[in-house]
Each structure stands twice: as structure tokens, then as C-alpha cells.
Amino acid sequence: MREELIAQLNAWHEADEYEEIVSRIKEVPTPLIDEELAVHLGRALNNLGRYREALKWFNKAAEQGKKDPLWHFRVGYAHYYLDEYDQAIKAFKKANKLDPEDQDTLEFLEWSRSEKAALAAADEDSEDSEDAEEAAEADSASDASPDRDSDAAKETKH
Predict the structure, then answer these.
(1) Contacts 24+ apart (CB under 8 A), 125-129
(2) What is the pTM of this model?
(3) pLDDT digits (tens, 9 = 90+) for 116-128
(4) Contacts (Cβ under 8 Å, ≥6 apart) of 39
(5) How far apart are CA 57 and CA 78, in angstroms?
């Protein structure tokens, strides 16, 4: 029975029928979803773009996944698409350490680092822009408000 279920889940995965995987596994009472089923469910959820939910199921299999480069890749993949680049980089680095030959891992690691750098640059530009706006506002505020010292100096000169 168990082997048939796993074979069916794999067949649905190959056929890109991810909703079938989710539906079938969710028929199993949650306490009975073991690490292997959790990984199948997380993989299907990742493929459906339901990354936060996928991470929940991957975490259920964290103990088993510690030494599995594919598990780390899938976790990194979910974090990448959630724009959580620090966590993605960490997961892809671990996947790369466990399987240095995997090109997908290297590619996502590079993309994660690039996205993180781009965000940092955009934040820096945004901060510079905000500082410039604040300075401009301060200048215009001082131009608009009467300068009391200046007025007093004018009065004494007259």
C-alpha cells in the first residue's frame, strides 16, 4: 500500500499534477504524515507557488533532510521565491556543500546573492534619496520662514 502511494505521488509529480499530490496527502490525518510524505507535499506546494506552506512541511522533515542536498535545495527554492535571500543563500550553500556538482544549486545560489545585492543597493539608493529629500525640505523650510536675526539686523542698520 505504502509503496503504491509513493509510486503514485512520483507519477503525479512527473505529470505535473501537483494538486493531485496535495489532495491525496491531505487525505492522510496530519499526525500520520511522516517525513517522506511531508517532503512530497512540500515539493508539490513549491511547484504550485505555495512557498510558505511548503516550508512548513519541509520543516517537518528537517531531521531527515539535514544531510540531503535536495532537501536543502527545496528549502532554498521556497525562500528564494519568498524574497528571503539570506535564508535562501544559507540553504543553497548547504546543498552545494553536500553536492558541489549540482548546477541548479549553483545557479540559484548565484541568483540569490545577486538579488540580495540588488536589494541592498536599492535600499542604499532609497536612503540617499530620502536624505536628499529631507535636506531639501529643511532648506525650503528655512527659506520660507522669516529669519528673525536677519530682520533684527536690518532694523538696527536703519
Answers:
(1) none
(2) 0.78
(3) 999 999 988 777 6
(4) 57, 58, 61, 64, 65, 71, 74
(5) 11
